[in-house]
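Quick start: read one record
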Amino acid sequence: MRHIALDVHRDFCEVAVCEDGAIRRAPRLGTSPAALSAFVAALRPDDQVVLEATGSAWAIAELLAPHAGRVVLAHPRALRAIAHARAKTDALDARTLCRLSAAGFLPETWVADPATIALRRQVARRRQLVVQRVRAKNQVHAILARNLAGRPPGAAPFGPSGRRWLAEVSASLPAHERRTLEGLLREIDFVSAELRAIEADLARAVVADPRVRRLMTIPGVNATTAVTLVAAIGDVRRFENPRQLAAYLGLGPRGRQSGTEPRPVEARNDMAGRRRYAVRPWNYCCRSCPHMTLPPLSIRSARSSQRDPDTYARSWGLARRGHAACPTLTVSRSLFSPISETQTRLPFRRSLRAETSRRL
């Protein structure tokens, strides 16, 4: 059995091969489809190919999987032998990957199915568009502030009434500021149209997904939050309990101990899922805990969620016991039990509300 390690870059891959206990360097491999097809032809049915899960490694792994015995994607954050090595080159990184694979110490990462990968990319694209639109809106507010134009009237400054007010104000602005404002408004319109299109695509992709419909029975979880969680989690059966799911999304504490001094450190992982599901406990903790210092997250589910008595009572209990740390993450971890259950075996906790059914 051969262990073949690829240190993947955008234009080439460094290759190392471990065979009969000896590690040797193979010729550098291009990442074009033609170069990869020649490499695939030389693979054996019992070969194990190892790649670090970065960049284009997912596409390369998809090409190699039908021809190799096993294709493994290594977790980049767990490869301390590479990240903290004194001497670090592409060839040495490939040799280290090969050595870890042959010894059985390679930290593997879960490989999502094609449908989950496509959903994750759509969710990431939507998040980027939201950030882009927020940035453009903030620039509009900055133009108004530095020209003493005041605040737009009404609750929707970029709605029909706000646009009429902006048209009146732009006439009194300097020429360069007026051109900038008009360009930003066109950018907001374009990004909003792209957002509507990708949200429609997401709705069509998951409208019949029972995982999304079960998640929406949890108070405070709307369609966007449910889709984000499904994309971030993937196959929930790979987690043995809700604690593992919470840790995967960055809401589980990770202890690092040396001698007699424990140093708890908060784990970090998928920030999209973490931001999404930290909204709901925020609604109940922000008024009950004096130690809350993080800014509230601007997500629509925070405004539309209904108060859940169990979560509200839990956040109040944590605050009244005088916890030094804010209870948001603690409450968030407790909410992953219904997520795990609704994703696996339990039916809806209650029927979907008419408004939720209409949105779906």
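The longest strand covers residues 22-30.
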